[in-house]
Amino acid sequence: MKSTHNIFFANSSKMDQIEDNSIDLIVTSPPYPMIEMWDHQFFQMNPEIADALNQGEGLSAYELMHQELDKIWMEIDRVLKEGSIICINIGDATRKVGQLFQLFSNHSRILNYFIKSGFEVLPEILWRKQSNKPNKFMGSGMLPPNAYVTSEHEYILVMRKGNNREFTGEQKKLRDESAYFWEERNLWFSDIWTDLKGIDQKISSNLTHRERSAAYPFELAYRLINMFSIKGDTVLDPFLGTGTTLIAAMASNRNSVGIEIDPGFREVIQIRLQNILEFLNAYLTTRIKQHLQFVREMEKKNKPLKYNSDLYDFKVVTNQETKICFNLLKEIKQVNESYEISYYDEKKNQKIIENLINNSQVEFISDEKKQKVSFQQKLD
Ligand SMILES: C[S@@+](CC[C@H](N)C(=O)[O-])C[C@H]1O[C@@H](n2cnc3c(N)ncnc32)[C@H](O)[C@@H]1O
User: Fold this and answer.
1) Domain-located, residue 222
2) Which of 73, 91, 176, 331 has its CB 3.0 to 4.6 Å from that of 323, i.e. a possible disulfide?
3) Same domain, 202 and 60
4) 3-state class of 10 per DSSP?
5) What is the four-CA torsion angle of 74, 80, 85, 89, rounded to 10 degrees?
6) Using a 6 Å cutoff on CB, does residue 262 contact ligand 1?
7) What is the pLDDT of residue 131?
8) 8 Å CB contact between 79 and 23
9) From the CB of 327, is ligand 1 less than 6 Å away?
10) How many folded domains does the chain comprise?
11) How many angstroms is it from 232 CA to the middle of ligand 1?
12) Ligand 1 lined by 12 (C-beta under 6 Å)
């Protein structure tokens, strides 16, 4: 069992590397219009944006920036298969241009584009960003009425191209294997996520002019991929940055394609991938550990679960979860800008998970950088 992950350092406004109707899911986060750290990139795309800002015309700068993103959304439409989902992580911006302080609602401008282009807009998710300045306030401080609320959330916009996807033959089996646990469903399909941890934004390379990575949490990409695609699918991120989407696809037994305009990120991604296998296996086994804990809690409450997992020695809540199958990663091979992941075969997977069920020593993992202890050492 294998998955393939291709990276292109190019401009996503023309994705010549990708065929029409070949992508099953988009998970991405663009540069945010009207947030200063992205000004430079937008000025390069269209110098009129800099002129508009210099002349104090905030709203026209905002519109011109979005017109640059629209070009990429148009390409997304071309490469996506019918029935596929698009997830876009975006934050709104507040900014003073000239004398005027105002909100630039990025999420609503992007939603409008997709509505006008005929996509089906589905319920969105708000995720709460942990602020490093919780007491920050803007405007007139303690005196009404001219203080402004602090923005501590971002949006994940969810859209679909066309009607619901259909599954036939082998795909039905893969869909069953791609099930998530009932208790995960309750958390993941809530429209407010408050439990995502922020990630270290420092960049470990001097090849890019950026100081901050603007990466989203691994968990955000991992959840979306597992909510909206099945094993063997191909996920695209047209704004790859540090490669989070690609890494989450590796953990999910999906293929992926990532496009990033800044070649300085080549090294950032390579460094990040060096120790990733340990983290991903620990992350997957943590999911199982958390399920085992849930099973024990339900038993304590005298509410034992009804169904047996087909592959593993644990119970699940619903019939839909019985075929759930975890694929732990065996090896990551790099060939130029492409990565091939091989996964353990079913027997080895079962053995590792059996070990896990009987070995309470394995700790819960949530942080890629703190994943120092060898997963293999703990289980062998
Ligand atoms: C918000 S960051 C994405 C961060 C990413 N989700 C991660 O976890 O690292 C947006 C990325 O899009 C890239 N970018 C901006 N315009 C682009 C374009 N036209 N084509 C490809 N990449 C672009 C930027 O260089 C930046 O790395």
Assistant:
1) yes
2) 176
3) yes
4) coil
5) -40
6) yes
7) 64
8) yes
9) no
10) 2
11) 25
12) yes
| Ligand 1 centre distance from Cα of residue 134 (Å) | 27
- Put simply, whether the predicted model's pTM sits higher than 0.90 gets the answer yes
The best mutation among 71, 220, 239 to test binding of ligand 1, ranked by most ligand atoms within 8 Å of the C-beta, falls on 239
The boundaries of the domain holding residue 348 are: 276-379
Long-range contacts of 227-231 (CB under 8 A, 24+ apart): 227/180, 227/188, 227/189, 228/25, 228/85, 228/87, 228/158, 229/24, 229/25, 229/85, 229/178, 229/254, 230/24, 230/167, 230/171, 230/174, 230/175, 230/177, 230/178, 230/254, 231/174, 231/177, 231/178, 231/327
Inter-CA distances, 74 with 101, 116, 208, 264, 365, Å: 31, 12, 27, 26, 38
Ligand 1 lined by 242 (C-beta under 6 Å):
yes
Tell me what the mean pLDDT of segment 138-142 comes to: 76
User: CB of 89 closer than 6 A to ligand 1?
Assistant: no
Instruction: Answer yes or no: do 257 and 308 share one domain.
Output: no
Is residue 28 scored above 90 in pLDDT? yes
For residue 140, give the 3-state DSSP assignment.
Answer: coil
DSSP state of 369: G
Q: Which of 242, 274, 306 is the last residue of a domain?
A: 274
Is residue 305 included in any domain, yes or no?
A: yes
Same domain for 339 and 309, yes or no, is: yes
Q: How confident is the model at residue 380 (pLDDT cuts 50, 70, 90)?
A: very low
Distance between Cα 367 and ligand 1 center (Å): 22
pLDDT band at residue 356 using 50, 70 and 90 as cut-offs? confident
Report how far ligand 1's centroid is from the alpha carbon of 175 (Å).
30
